[in-house]
Amino acid sequence: MAQMISTMPMVDATPAVSAIMASKLPQSACLDTPASGITVVSRQHVRPDAASAMADLTLSVSDLPMLSCHYIQKGLFFPAPDLPMSSLVSLLVSSLSRALAAVPALAGRLVTLPDDRIVIRCNDAGVDFLHAVAPGLSLDDFLVPDADVPTKLTKDLFPMDRTVSYEGHRRPLTSFQVTVLRDGAVFIGIVANHAVVDGTSFWHFFNTWAAICRGDSPRPLDFRRNFFGDSTAVLRFPRGVGPAVTFDADAPLRERVFHFSADAIREMKAIANRRPGGGVHDAEVYGKMAHDPKNPESRGEISSFQSLCAQIWLAVTRARKRLAPDATTTFRMAVNCRHRLLPAISPAYFGNAIQSAVTTATVSELARHDLRWAAGKLNASLAAYGDCAIRRAAAAWQAKPGCFPLGNPDGSVITMGSSNRFPMYEGNDFGWGRALAVRSGRANKFDGKMSAFPGRAGDGSVDIEVCLPPETMAALLRDAEFMQTARGMLGATWSRDTPRS
């Protein structure tokens, strides 16, 4: 059920919402009017439409390290729906209530037990759903070709900005915001506790909500928490004072989404998989990769995404002008453990099942070598990240529990999160058309943080959200080799002439 906690009126924001001016709204309706011009006009508290019978879910060894991370913030722009906005909001709320009944973990709260174990209590405490309007903004203000993401605007598309996941003891584990723009376009944003979900689970829930909204049945989920066996490891937080994020969230950053076409990625993959030209260094490295009995999979083909990551690793390292030649650069890539463990975890496992695969090289090594060499390094690291490596990492964490150290303390790290395989466009039609673009909030962003999104066309193209300090981003944009393969996202994936369904 949806329980109103505010008597603020809904705004009937039809596709002609441009006629609605914030100044004409009742003063009591404007719950929040930040400088961006995105105004929250109503707030509802939504509970599952059926009582949960699920027992406490203990946070796993993959969940607990995320307690110091911000809540995940991801959302989608949609074309203008063909129904009054009050009806749309009612539809979204009622379908959300049913979706929460299917995924009761997201409607609960975190609870620390007397033995310091932290659990998800599926107590139907509910979530927040906000309806906002932006009468002075249109899609063109958010999706600007060949330009930085307007983060001063996008940050207000999400509630619970920069909330740390430990706060799930006191605050909802998920929050939702639908924002209506002047041209009638709609943004649906979800904020989810990172100790409860990883990217796979996040987008599975997004798909579940959309499926219920358009009248389909959602796929069942697996809530078991025993894929590493029973763990006695705990994280203790004296007096209930939770952790802080492990990076400077206020450091100046520029953010861009670069589009890599399917053709450009195929070309990078072809280069990465060519035989080395006989150079001493190449022959030595590739010989080790091909014949290392511990890494038999490393003899396989270098993937499209590994090839793209190699190009990014080379270009960003070149753009970081202050790095010494002997400095070690690190490429961290989020790894989905579900299919890598033996036996494999169900693809429908709901929770965190991720680790970080690390590849290193010195600045001078990357400068001396090419895309093929860098892609080979990444390929070898990922091929080695199988069941044994995952279990070793889990055992090491249990021996010395701690929060995951997000950030870039020495200025030489790239952290690739999310995945171009997530169903961000597929499966997220709420009933009035395919999404137009993906955007994220300010959560978990620092120098070198990147996120991979599938291209909207579904043709193998990839969009990479890149966060860098202003001077590094400027240098990257001057890198002719990089810019030959990348261009501003919206120039390639959305325009006023793009079909909207």
UniProtKB/TrEMBL annotation:
Task: Give GO terms: molecular function aspect only.
Answer: acyltransferase activity, transferring groups other than amino-acyl groups
The answer to keyword Transferase applying to this record is: yes
Cross-referenced InterPro entries:
CAT-like_dom_sf, Sec_Metabolite_Acyltrans
Q: Which UniProt keywords apply?
A: Transferase
Supply the Pfam families for this chain.
Transferase
Entry keyword Endoplasmic reticulum:
no
Q: What is this protein called?
A: Acetyltransferase
- In which organism is this protein found? Urochloa decumbens
